[in-house]
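Re: [ENG-882] Designed sequences occasionally contain unexpected residues at chain ends

Forwarding the minimal case from QA. Structure tokens:
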């Protein structure tokens, strides 16, 4: 019984840590959203909303793909090399 309570506490703490981390990630994403929108507006000037939105979507997509590739490379496990035993 005591082990089950300890396990539940551990799961609750892990879940709270994940939620807090995700919340900070969302806040950072919203901050970058505003910054990139301001940069595109400054770069293009005031255009019709649709053109600016499409440019913004393309820029964000490219950044997301690059960031995903870089993060995947950083956390990738190194390839296991074959070991030959020499007698």
């Amino acid at each position: 019984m005591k082990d089950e309570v300890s396990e539940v506490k551990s799961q609750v703490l892990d879940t709270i840590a994940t939620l807090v981390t995700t919340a900070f990630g969302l806040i950072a994403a919203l901050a970058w959203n505003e910054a990139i929108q301001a940069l595109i507006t400054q770069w293009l000037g005031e255009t019709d909303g649709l053109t600016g939105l499409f440019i913004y979507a393309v820029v964000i997509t490219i950044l997301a793909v690059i960031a995903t590739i870089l993060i995947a490379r950083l956390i990738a496990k190194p390839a296991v090399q074959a070991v030959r035993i020499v007698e």
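QA comment: On inspection the terminal residues look reasonable. The chain is about 80% helix and 0% strand. Proposing we downgrade this to a documentation issue.
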